[in-house]
Amino acid sequence: MSWRNELLAVWAVTLRNALMGARNVFFFFELLFWPIVGVLSIGLMSRFLELTEAQASFVLVGTIALSVVNVCQLEVAYAVLLDVWSKSLKHQFLAPIGIRHLTLGSWVVGMVRSLAVFVLLAALGRWAFGFHVLQPGWFALAMFLLGCFLTAWVVGVAVCALITLFGNRAEAFAWATVNMVLVLAGIYYPISVLPDFIAAIARAIPLTYFLDAYRSHYGFASEFRAPIATGLALSALYAALAHWAFLAAIQRARRTGLLLKMSE
Amino acid sequence: MVSSLGMLAIDARDVEKTFRSGWPRRRETQALRGVSLTVERGAIVGVLGPNGAGKTTLLSILATLLTPDRGTVMVLGHDVVREAGALRRRLNMASGRPSFLWSLRVAEILAFYGRLYGLSGATLRRRVDGLIELCELGPYRRIPYSDLSTGLKQRVALAKSLVNDPELLFLDEPTLGLDPDVSVRVRAHIARLRREQGITIVLTTHYMREADELCDEIAFIKGGRILARGTPGELKRQIRLGEVIALRLDPARVPWLSEIPGVLRCVEVDGWVECTVDEAEKRLPELLRALHTDGVVIRNVQVREPELEEVFVELAK
Fold this sequence. Notes:
By secondary structure, chain A is an all-alpha fold. Chain A has one domain. Chain A has 11 helices and no strands. The longest helix of chain A is centred in the first third of the chain and has 34 residues, at about 55-85. Chain B is about 35% helix and about 30% strand. Chain B contains 10 helices and 14 strands. Chain B has helices at about 55-60, 85-90, 105-115, 120-135, 150-160, 180-195, 210-215, 230-240, 280-295, 310-315, and strands at about 10-20, 25-40, 45-50, 70-75, 80, 90-95, 170, 200-205, 215-220, 225-230, 245-250, 265-270, 270-275, 295-305. The longest helix of chain B is centred in the middle third of the chain and has 18 residues, at about 180-195. Chain B is globular, with a radius of gyration of 24 Å. Mean pLDDT of chain B is about 85; it is low at about 1-5. The interface of A and B includes residues 256 and 259 of A.
């Protein structure tokens, strides 16, 4: 396949997801309502508990990360979910489309949507609680967002694999998996407070390192030696594993007939 | 790898497929039990059979949507398992129960699939416009898929199946649930596709008239096995259903007709007496002579082959 055709296939998925998203009022709800509720409730709680500015920043970073990762990973999961809901999965896999086109195309839309969520929450955080996302500088912010996007991509592709493996019943994974990952990654707390065996799992999650690196600019000493490099390396490893799992799940669905069952 | 059988669009041999389901008790359903099928390039072949016979499973394997458990399947010279990627560019499929993303408009659906097949810019626009015109979807090009009627959805599916200019087209019950006038137009369109573009077409249908009208050859499948294969005429002869001599008589009822040698049975249908005979050419003069001798007035006579539907009923028993 030529580069032109590769890009066209990715663009086809990007455009499809963007059009579907733009025409669904619930997608906007998902984009705005929960993220705003999250930042407001956590921000107000930090005020009630009289947290220091640094502590409030710590939890608000977690709240914003949660929204950004959630919105982005759900969009990646839509690569399969939209076709499962509309029962058009067989048409998609009858065409010469690879999983890379599906996951990259929907990831692009996910990044745009979650970037919009981030800008909105950053403005809200600044206005309501004096939290400044650019305090650590542009590079640190870019690495933090990249970490969120990469984590969302990996989780989204893993969710696609689970749905393709178990069928419609596995839809709940799309909403549940990411929250489990976020809880383990130390979304509102440093992972040093976790029990040892859970902390070991947390150290295997890329987002843990990106959160750690970004929060270090708000006065919290980093728990890791090279958090960004470690986060990037882990993301690359998991992205490869998730794509392999997705591919294997599709091959299995072609073998068991699940691909057709999900289209009827 | 390109097969040496250049004239064959499909060469499937001893294909087996078993579905397993249920937990903890596994249930096994043998969908295909050693199916072999060859289809020449440019032909229209019908795969007929009762529900659960294995028609859709066979089509899905040929279209790379399912992998076979056993057997070899070469389609357009490609192995359907090892060379599925290359093959997918050259075939397409439309189903009688189509589904596409609900919010996308007709033109957007066609453009989405067109891009997956490498079309872009003016070429993509021309192809989408051409298919919309061909399938009479002009007034609906900006209508979301979920707002279309069943017939229009099927036309979208047909248009989508042509977006990559396929060499081989699978049509799974293409006129299911369509109004008769739309069905006639869809059938005419299928025939035109083969005539003008030389597309090889494999279709499944429950409408025997459709199969009789469109197909060069028919494979009758039941219980995962191909039971009979041939042209519609060959199939009718193959299962020895005989021929039908239909008579409009006065008086309308002649009880002794079925006692004439060579007459297999006689039934009354809408004022006609339909006599199934072993050989019409031989029995018609004998019947007419006997009726004339008995003073029965013969108002009309027709000789016809049995309907394909009767063949289907006979094979499905």
